[in-house]
Amino acid sequence: MSLYEHVVITRPDVSSNAVEEFVQNLATKIENMGGTVEGAEYWGLRNLAYRMNKNRKAHYSLLKVNAHSDVIHEIERTHRINEDILRYMSIRVDEFNEDPSPILKKREERKRRDRN
User: Strands (DSSP E) along the chain, which ranges?
Assistant: First the structure.
């Protein structure tokens, strides 16, 4: 089995609770297909670099997946069908970093600066 980092960008008009529920459903689907989800992060509603389908913001989510390539292909196929998903990307990695992602680190640094 291979290690993948899977990022999903969803429409901004979907609530954050619905996005987190979508990520949980995606994790259970991956586990039912024989893979495992090592971790999931919700990065929040963020600005896009350019407009996608007339949207300027989107919800970002990251999943760290340990699965075979056919599981990833099936997940990507279902993403193409789902209208709530603007973009997705799966990257094969050699190992997972145990630290939080740079996006979450940046958010924590910003919170610390605001407190001072």
Answer: 2-10, 36-52, 55-67, 85-93
| Alpha carbons 14 and 77: distance in angstroms, whole number | 21
Q: Is 110 helix (H, G, I), strand (E, B) or coil?
A: helix
Q: What is the band of 99 on the pLDDT scale with cuts at 50, 70, 90?
A: confident
**Using an 8 Å Cβ cutoff, are 41 and 62 in contact?**
yes
Query: What's the angle, vertex CA 24, arms to CA 90 and CA 30, rounded to 5?
Result: 50
Q: What is the pTM of this model?
A: 0.85
Q: How far apart are CA 13 and CA 11, in angstroms?
A: 6
